[in-house]
Structure formats: structure tokens, C-alpha cells
Amino acid sequence: MSLTHTILGFLSWKPFTGYELKKLFSETDFIYWSGNNNQIYKSLVQLSSEKLVTREVVQQDSLPAKKIYHITDKGRKELHDWASSSPEFAQVKNTFLMQLAWSGELNDRELSNLIGEYQYEVEMRLAMCRTKLERRTVLPDRTEREEYIWEMLWQKEIDYLKGELNWLVKLSQGVVKRSGK
Question: Which of 8, 25, 104, 117 has its CA 20 to 30 A from that of 84?
Fold first, then answer.
């Protein structure tokens, strides 16, 4: 994932503060980002120095000044060029799969617990995604087409998680048949 391009994408909707951008990242499940919050602020400084965004400082009574970031025409062009470039094939890092690969070291109860814990996490994530889509937590409010695309992005995440749960049921059933052997 390109952090800078995702920031530019969010800013193409409307101006945001760094805090609001952090919140969008944390609320958008299909935008995988494992960095720390300081990276967003560093990226905003970099984007500003490259003239891809501008910063507006708004003074507030009895609160620190608020920095609101706006995408520039140069930033929109950069976002357009990146969005129209050839996509990369998704590389998904799933620690559970690595643990499962070496689960021969676990006894039946430990393996069952591992699968059960992962299944619980998937179920919780699925419930959260459904709720976020229903509440329209992170959806642009610009065009019908863009809104549809974002709804489909959420639906893709939901479908992925449902598929993951189906696979976990098969896995659990297969492991039970082969336990203690």
C-alpha cells in the first residue's frame, strides 16, 4: 500500500486534519497499514514539501491550533497518475497461515485453540465490517459511482472474511478427523 497515495486519496474527498486521517485509516479495514501514526504526519510533511498538499492552520480557543490539509492540483495529478498505473498483485501476509504451517509441533488441544482463536478474530472482523458498511462509516460522498466502488470494496472484505470462515470450518473438521494420529 502506498501511504502517501492513500492520504492523497482521502484528501481528494475533502480537507482533513492528521488526526482525522489516522481515524480513517483505522476505520477502513481493507486499507492494510501496519505503520505507526507518526508516519502519517511525516508523510503529510513530505507531501507538503513536494507541493502535493497545502496546510491551513486554524487557531482554536483554549485548544492547540488545528492543521487542516488540502490536496493541490499537483496532488490530484499525482493521485490520478498512480490510480491509473498498472496494479500490483495483492500480497497478503497472514501470520496464522505461518503458524498453521508449523502446527505439527502442537498437540490436538493447542491446535484446536489456535484455530478457534483465529476463527473468533475473523468473526469479530466480519461483524465490524458489516456494521461499518451498514453505518456507512467510511464512504465518500461525492459521486454515485465512487460511493458504489467503496461499497464494493467493503463487500469484497466481507466476502473474503466469509470465505475465510468457510475455510476454517473445513480445516477444523479435517483436523478433528485426523487428531491423535
Answer: 25
